[in-house]
Write a structure and sequence with these properties.
Distance between the termini: 21 Å
Helix content: over 70%
Order of helices and strands: HHHHHHHHHH
Number of strands: 0
Structural class: mainly alpha
Length: 260
């Protein structure tokens, strides 16, 4: 096993195990405010990695930059269409959060989920594995930044999934096991992504553009709108600070990787 492949496998195992274990711990109602803070931080991380790492690397090595622009647009619109068709989801809502729904609203919505959520998450995590592989194939520091961004997003994302499964009738143990099984597809995606991208280097800029499209879509369609619903200055200023903290974490992640 090459060192790059070892890094890819390790990064995907780390993001899967840590995000799901933290999600199981954070899924108690009294920790909802902490989940909201993680959403803010992950928004900053995702946008920073997409705009300052993934896209510059993609355009630097691309033979046809205009095609990359079209692919970026197609990726964002494709994710929008998939979400509208309920084939993927990025919800972070859970019973007891700060959204002003009638009691039981999220549980009622969650009962529709269960197995479709697990199927969607399997494909979602497979894609995360491929984008982490694409980042590590380019450079170790880019791989570290992508891993940090995926991990930060996956924790609140998995909290939402965990609550959906509980409300759909899964026991805690069953929800944990099935979430972990769905998350393990990230490792498969990482391994497949490594071998495909290593043997077909010309595909790498396009894989990076699609990864950037995924990060941008998640941040702009899901994470930042969550914050826009809360308009008071007292709530908004800390959230802006947490977004900037995510930017700082992404910058530090690449700096530390570069130093090593």
């Amino acid at each position: 096993m090459t060192s790059t492949l070892a890094y890819i496998v390790s990064a995907n195992v780390l993001t899967t195990v840590v995000s799901i274990c933290l999600a199981a711990w954070l899924s108690f109602r009294w920790l909802a405010s902490l989940v909201d803070r993680l959403v803010c931080v992950s928004a900053g991380l995702l946008l920073t990695v997409a705009f300052t790492h993934l896209l510059p690397e993609a355009f630097r090595d691309a033979d046809n930059p205009a095609m990359l622009g079209w692919l970026l647009l197609a990726g964002i619109l494709g994710l929008f269409l998939l979400e509208k068709a309920a084939l993927i989801h990025h919800t972070h809502h859970h019973e007891g959060d700060s959204h002003h729904h009638a009691h039981g609203h999220d549980a009622h919505e969650a009962r529709r989920g269960g197995w479709p959520v697990l199927i969607g998450d399997t494909f979602h995590n497979f894609g995360d594995g491929v984008l982490i592989a694409a980042a590590f194939v380019v450079d170790a520091k880019l791989g570290v930044a992508a891993t940090a961004a995926v991990l930060a997003h996956e924790v609140p994302h998995e909290v939402g999934d965990f609550m959906i499964l509980l409300n759909a009738g899964f026991s805690r143990r069953k929800a944990f096991v099935f979430n972990l099984a769905a998350g393990s597809s990230a490792v498969l995606g990482g391994v497949i992504g490594y071998f495909v991208l290593e043997s077909m280097q010309r595909l790498l800029p396009y894989a990076l553009a699609l990864a950037a499209a995924s990060f941008i879509y998640i941040a702009l369609s899901d994470l930042l709108p969550e914050m826009m619903r809360r308009t008071s200055l007292r709530r908004s200023l800390p959230e802006v600070g947490l977004v900037l903290l995510g930017v700082l974490i992404a910058a530090l992640a690449t700096t530390v990787a570069r130093a090593h």
